């Protein structure tokens, strides 16, 4: 054989060539493990719920049918679940941004409250004939600005004064909720005009053009907040995974001193991450007051801020997990209301099931990390 015309032999695959295949195998194995863990957690939580139904004296079949009907049996119930999931997804998405920079935002409840206050202030002062293309963005931007400013207080204390953002955001929750109570009780602020002793301490309804439009699903209360939450999750996912800003945030989260030595603006990145997280929680608050019944009232946050914190913690930085967990929680909330009405089971039973699910998933994550050391 002529060595000048002979074809070179194909190179033997080395360790480097097999690395991508190994990564794929490891990833698929981790995915199967995650499915098993989450599926097992859901199964155990459902068994706990079944036990609560039996102890409460209700018929398990009736309760199960009521739960299913509340989640998927009617367009109204499913639309309500989607609206709740949108609020949780916005908060969880913001939590993920702060978490990527090494910060934990525990203040979504207060940021939600301030976003609702600002959105209401705008929604009740704009002209009644304002078009939705103008009024709705104004309300949402006001909510974002208020939530970001509220989170910015904790961010400033954390970045430039060394105060723990966990403590400051947690304490600011109570101030934010107190602010809601104040503005809906004082006539000089946002309380509707008192016409009789029966007038409720709440704001006037938002102007027609400041209310979130419906998605257009038949007999469904789902609003464009659902689409807004989806767009926010997609955009944030792209920013965190595909842009220089996401890389910088990851570097800061992994090691702020090392990132500073590389010349990154660590302080501003951390400040911006926590502020944007608060802004998204504020948008969620604006969405709550711009949805039926279109008023600001006490306890309008309904614990969404703390539930959104749990969503962010369980998602562990995955925006797809944020969407999935938010939807599950929204469906459980909608189904729990129907179980209470149709089967006579206390609504707190659904909260117990959610708590058990959270404990099981969180425990599995902790055990996995402990075993990986």
From TrEMBL:
It is found in: Cell membrane. The chain crosses the membrane at residues 35-58, 78-99, 111-130, 136-159, 166-184, 222-240, 271-290, 296-315, 322-343, 349-367. It is a multi-pass membrane protein. Residues 1-20 are annotated as: Disordered. The keyword Isomerase does not apply. Keywords: Cell membrane, Membrane, Sugar transport, Transmembrane, Transmembrane helix, Transport. This is Simple sugar transport system permease protein. It comes from Nocardia goodfellowii.
């Amino acid at each position: 054989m002529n060595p000048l015309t002979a074809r070179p032999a194909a190179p033997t695959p080395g360790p480097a060539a097999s690395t991508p295949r190994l990564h794929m195998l490891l990833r698929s194995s981790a995915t199967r493990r995650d499915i098993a863990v989450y599926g097992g957690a859901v199964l155990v939580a459902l068994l706990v719920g079944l036990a609560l139904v039996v102890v409460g004296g209700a018929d398990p079949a009736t309760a199960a049918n009521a739960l299913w009907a509340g989640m998927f049996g009617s367009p109204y119930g499913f639309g309500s679940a989607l609206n709740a999931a949108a609020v949780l997804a916005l908060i969880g998405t913001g939590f993920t941004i702060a978490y990527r920079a090494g910060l934990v935002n525990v203040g979504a409840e207060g940021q939600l409250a301030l976003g609702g206050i600002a959105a209401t202030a705008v929604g009740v002062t704009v002209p009644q004939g304002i078009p939705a293309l103008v009024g709705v963005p104004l309300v949402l931007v006001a909510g974002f600005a208020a939530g970001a400013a509220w989170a910015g207080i904790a961010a400033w204390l954390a970045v430039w004064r060394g105060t723990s953002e966990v403590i400051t955001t947690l304490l600011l929750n109570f101030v934010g909720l107190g602010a809601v109570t104040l503005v809906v009780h004082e006539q000089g602020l946002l309380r509707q005009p008192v016409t009789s002793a029966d007038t409720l301490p709440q704001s006037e309804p938002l102007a027609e053009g400041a209310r979130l439009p419906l998605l257009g699903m038949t007999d469904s209360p789902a609003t464009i907040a659902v689409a807004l939450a989806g767009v926010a999750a997609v955009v944030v996912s792209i920013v965190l995974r595909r842009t220089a800003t996401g890389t910088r945030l990851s570097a800061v989260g992994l090691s702020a001193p090392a990132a500073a030595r590389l010349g990154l603006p660590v302080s501003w990145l951390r400040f911006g991450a926590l502020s944007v997280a608060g802004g998204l929680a504020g948008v969620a608050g604006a969405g709550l007051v711009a949805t039926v019944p279109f008023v600001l009232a006490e306890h309008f946050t309904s614990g969404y801020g703390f539930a959104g914190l749990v969503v962010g913690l369980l998602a562990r930085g995955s925006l797809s997990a944020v969407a999935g967990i938010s939807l599950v929680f929204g469906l459980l909330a909608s189904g729990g209301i129907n179980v209470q009405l149709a089967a006579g089971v206390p609504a707190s039973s659904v909260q117990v099931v959610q708590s058990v699910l959270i404990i099981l998933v969180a425990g599995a994550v902790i055990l996995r990390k402990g075993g990986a050391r």
